[in-house]
Design brief:
homodimer; 349 residues; 434 Repressor (Amino-terminal Domain); Rossmann fold; 11 helices; elongated; DNA-binding
DNA sequence: CTGTAGTGCTAATACGTAATAGCGAAGATT
DNA sequence: AATCTTCGCTATTACGTATTAGCACTACAG
């Protein structure tokens, strides 16, 4: 026996014929509108029986063609990654997205086909916007392509970006994490712990998120009477000399955006007989990649799951009630770092 | 400024208007049939330009209504789980599926909407078959609903099940793991290690996979001259008494389908001063749930990633060349358990 | 100047469903 | 008797695409 495909499924017209009514009547009964259409119980029953008899199943394509909606939400990541890989930074977002999709009864389209030969993921490929297969989409990615976003917005395609994103001259919907407040509060906490010099060490490349953190850092410094000290460093920029200089200026705490940088600092300070967190506090305030951590760090928690959920909620709201005024930009609070690598400042010399 | 959306996606009619031709001409050009329709290069170019300009993308609903494909593959899991959760048994399958989808340029539809209020996942819900939005689907699940599968097959819907699945009177396409050979080989290996009594402890509920393992066990016993000893146990059925009785009959190795059962055995045998694997060998031959293992076990490896990939490959083959005769049932080899909890049999008393 | 062959399209239709407008018959009201 | 309501539906249309039939025109042969 071979696996067979392609058989004609019964349609409402078939049922109508069997029950001796019109297709419209069948649609009304199946769609639960028999009251409005004044189909009496008896006829409705006859129709239902015929439908069951023939094994009728509504054709979703026809339904969505009529209703202009597919109940499909797209998920698009700009980074060239398998979005569902758990090693991936995005995985936890995905879970939130999926949980909410289940809750609202939408299906998800994972846009995996949008990868071009160079591994780049673009929305517009061959001039076509594949996202259109979904009613709306959730977009993820640090390196989101601004021109893609602007064009999508100009096209009126409904989407929500996960992570704050500024596109000039365009207001786009996003759900972000409130790095700014969280970082400011962290500076406050360190101050309370006696730190007087807190250094911020950021990505060399400045994304929205890192700018938010720096802004929070600066405002935290300001409101706590601390002089800010900002450096933008790649991993290899972190040298023993740099650390010595920092320590010489009295820095006792570092806010670091990259785990690699934190590891370097830990390494060099260990060589100098400094222990963490007793002599030096370090907090990770960037996005921690995977769980490949060689040690626990005090880390600013990104509410990834919730961000995913909120993005879907906002998107579905936008789809179901397009004209209701609402907040298109949502900031969710981060969770504060724990005490792993944060402690009271050492006694001053 | 407000976020504007819900502009109607452009249709072929819009393009036609822009290019000054008829909708049919647009369809012909977009569908690559401009030759047959005798659309000259110049006009075709004009149409393509307009399409690009407007960001046209074919409406999936209309396309499938016409019986055409959308380059969309569905993924449906019968278990009520978030399929992308990494805690999930299915996650690794998903990754394989996604990798292959990327490779062949299809997008994936995660069917999350098919969950009914009781948490059950069914294909046919509310009298509609959501799967139809995808050209074909990959189905996952130990507890796959046979009537759903039979109906899908009867409807001629193209799908591939991940995991061997027997549906009476219907041949279903699937990609499975060759538990049977692997278990038989494992019995052989244990025999070589000197074990003379190897016990099989299976799920109380018998799925295809567990039946395969038992069959392999029995054939392995037969070809190695061992008397089989089979038990179907839930976690709580594993008592100290049961273990004592087993050991009394001379059992020195257990093939266990559930990690929980293995843990019980380990616990009770430790209480009797038996160490694993020196006094007792244990191999896990079932599907290990997550990575919540309290210890490493010698485990039969399921080629999950490859199964996912193969399922997609088979499905796409079925879609692109429906009438080519081919294997619809694919068995992939398992990887043998390592030596964590398997060792030579203790000297006989 | 008619007939024929191509060229470049357009017009029309089908797919299955949902929604809206409305029709004929029966009964109720004036 | 004439009008109005209500009932129980049907007929029609729209959604966007693919496909088929065929029309209007030109070029050329005879």
């Amino acid at each position: 026996m071979a696996v067979r495909h392609r058989r004609q499924a019964p349609t409402q017209a078939d049922i109508a014929r069997a029950a001796g009514v019109s297709q419209g009547a069948v649609s009304a009964v199946i769609g639960g509108r028999s009251a409005e259409q004044r189909i009496p119980r008896e006829t409705a029953q006859r129709i239902m029986d015929a439908a069951r008899e023939l094994g009728y199943v509504a054709n979703t394509a026809a339904r969505s063609l009529k209703g202009k909606r597919n109940r499909l939400l797209g998920v698009h990541t700009f980074e060239s990654v398998f979005p569902i890989s758990q090693r991936d930074f995005y995985h936890e977002f995905l879970i939130g997205i999926e949980e909410q999709a289940v809750a609202v009864g939408y299906d998800l389209v994972l846009f995996t086909s949008t990868e071009d030969p160079t591994g780049q993921r673009r929305v517009y490929r061959d001039g076509a916007n594949r996202l259109n297969v979904a009613d709306g989409s959730v977009l993820l990615g640090i390196g989101s392509n601004n021109s893609d976003l602007a064009r999508l917005a100009a096209d009126g395609y409904p989407f929500v970006h996960v992570g704050r994103r500024d596109v000039p001259d365009t207001e786009i919907a996003w759900v972000g994490a409130d790095y700014s407040s969280a970082t400011a509060e962290l500076v406050g906490r360190l101050t309370t712990l006696g730190h007087r010099q807190v250094s911020y060490v950021g990505y060399a490349e400045r994304y929205e998120a890192s700018r938010d953190r720096e802004a929070g850092y600066r405002s935290g410094c300001a409101s706590n009477g601390i002089t800010p000290g900002v450096a933008y460093l790649e991993q290899d920029d972190v040298t023993a000399q740099w650390l010595d200089r920092s320590l010489a200026t009295g820095v006792t705490a570092f806010l670091v955006e990259r785990q690699e940088v934190a590891m370097r600092i830990a390494e060099y300070s260990a060589a100098r007989g400094l222990s963490i967190p007793d002599d030096l506090s370090i907090a990770l305030i960037g996005a921690s990649g995977g769980s490949s951590a060689s040690r626990r760090w005090s880390t600013l928690g990104i509410p990834r799951n919730q961000m995913g959920r909120e993005a879907v909620r906002l998107l579905v709201d936008m789809l179901t009630a397009p004209d209701v005024p609402r907040e298109f930009q949502i900031l969710l609070p981060c969770t504060a770092p724990d005490d792993s690598t944060i402690a009271a400042a050492p006694p001053r010399r």
